[in-house]
Design goal:
Blueprint lengths: L1 H18 L4 H8 L9 H19 L21 H17 L3 H7 L5 H20 L4
C-alpha cells in the first residue's frame, strides 16, 4: 500500500514538473486572461479529466478498491463559510503566488525561496484554520 502511494506521488511530481505547474510564471501566465495568456495548462487539465473519466469507467462497478480496504464516503453537499473561505483563500494564493498546493510542495525540492515561503505560509494557514474552526 505504501509503495503504491509513493509511486502515485512520484507520478504526480513528475507530471507537475513536466507540465510546468511548479513554475509560478507558467501558472500566472495561464491566469492572465487579459494579457499574454498561456493556454498550455488547459492541456494539463484536459488530460487530468480524460484520465479521471477513463479511471472512473474502470472502477465504477467495483465493490472495493484494489489497493485499499474501502472507498471514501461521499463528499459533503453543504456549502458553508468554511468551504467558501477555503475556496477564496485557495484562489487568492494561487492567483497571487502562482502556486497550487501540490505543485508547491513538489517545487520545494528546487530550493526556490518563493516555494519555501509559500509552503511555510500554507502550513501555518492550515494549522491556524484547524485551531480556529476544527474540521467536523
Amino acid at each position: 500500500m505504501n509503495l503504491v502511494a509513493f509511486l502515485c506521488g512520484v507520478l504526480f511530481a513528475a507530471g507537475a514538473c513536466v507540465s510546468g505547474m511548479v513554475r509560478p510564471s507558467k501558472v500566472l501566465g495561464f491566469l492572465d486572461l487579459g494579457g499574454a495568456w498561456d493556454a498550455t495548462l488547459l492541456f494539463v487539465m484536459a488530460s487530468a479529466l480524460a484520465i479521471h473519466f477513463l479511471a472512473w469507467r474502470v472502477v465504477k462497478n467495483a465493490t472495493a478498491p484494489r489497493f485499499g480496504t474501502r472507498y471514501p464516503g461521499p463528499p459533503s453537499q453543504t456549502i458553508d463559510r468554511r468551504l467558501l473561505g477555503g475556496a477564496v483563500l485557495f484562489g487568492l494564493g494561487w492567483g497571487l503566488a502562482g502556486y497550487c498546493p501540490g505543485p508547491a510542495v513538489v517545487s520545494i525540492v528546487s530550493g526556490a525561496t518563493s516555494s519555501i515561503v509559500f509552503v511555510t505560509a500554507m502550513v501555518i494557514g492550515i494549522l491556524l484554520a484547524r485551531r480556529i474552526s476544527p474540521p467536523s
